[in-house]
């Protein structure tokens, strides 16, 4: 976006609902609050403070004519920190998107019934290009940005995209403001029924995911009775009698040696069914601050991507934050292809992007435009390393992007920071 006269800048600020509070406005603490001692080096709090200090400093240097400056930056907030009217505005926009007509080609995605479905379809279509490889963070950052733009430009959402801070609610996700089933949540857990493990097979992996605390359709809150149109119907979970369950680890994950298959076309067919969740405490215990700190210790982005998905080392203590966030929600969110059919997917990936952004902010000169990893899941079959000139595709939800244009959250098309 090219901006010239000051009047155009003012018009953009007023007309597009961009948050115009100065970048150095106080966050939440009142003026009378006692100053807090600095967080220990290497802690999540310290790294977050480093990131915020960098972003604020960088944006203050920029002219008002710069498309991303201290007045135009969008501030992404944690769901629980948003006011109820702001949460309602977001929920209404998601529901609006689910009523808008699809833009996917009917012959390519015959099951798409809404604009919301377009995003599920794009994730299914690109699944083998964006997981367990060097595109993981960049593709999902851009996917979330395009989703936010659709909510804002097509459905009247006026804020920045929220995120779900796993570390705040790991002890009891179901009682969090995201999943408590209130009118200002993203709906409840799934209705409980006794069940055992869910078997997941994808990307050459076979996992037995422990049974959670729900398993059935979301029954309360704004997304009760929400219909999922795309993706395959999962197999029934094992009966509860098979407990204790096999827990995914280096001993229980099988990686096949065969080439990664093409996503089944049937996942794009029309398959209406209720949105399900199965909130899981085994996986939420892998989303604590210490787990995030473990990930943020990575010296390069290749380590970051592999550690986030649990295949960097044989360390039994290694958290699997990307997958863990999905598996905390359970139900549809366990599906690595159609998981964007659950509105909570986007808050999970907001936090996932936040972690990457904080990691970049520890050494912006070296990390912002750093890429790593190859182009295929687990490098099977062997493929070339990703480069800054690689093209990322988004099907019906947005244009193609060059990798280099997705790596800074405050440059190019992007202009946001995390509170």
Overall pLDDT, averaged? 86
- How many E strands? 11
SS summary, helix count: 13
Biggest sheet: strand arrangement: 3-4-7
Distance between the termini: 24 Å
Strand percentage lies at 5-15%
Shape: globular
Helix content: 25-40%
Spell the H/E element sequence.
Answer: HHEHHHHHEEEEEEEHHHHHHEEE
List low-pLDDT spans: 1-32, 241-263
Please summarize the sheet with the most strands.
3 strands, antiparallel
Rounded to an integer, what's the Rg over CA atoms?
21 Å
The assigned structural class equals: alpha+beta
Describe the structure.
Helices cover 31% and strands 8% of the residues. The chain has 419 residues and is an alpha+beta fold. The chain has a 3-stranded antiparallel sheet, with no helix packed on it. Strands 1-11 form a two-stranded parallel sheet.
List the helices and strands and how they pair.
Blueprint: H1 6-15, H2 44-60, E1 74-76, H3 84-97, H4 115-125, H5 127-130, H6 136-155, H7 166-169, E2 190-192, E3 198-202, E4 205-209, E5 215-218, E6 227-228, E7 254-255, E8 273-274, H8 281-284, H9 289-296, H10 301-308, H11 321-329, H12 344-361, H13 364-367, E9 391-392, E10 401-402, E11 416-418
Parallel strand pairs: 1-11
Antiparallel strand pairs: 2-5, 3-4, 4-7, 6-8, 9-10
Helix pairs in contact: 2-12, 3-6, 6-12, 11-12
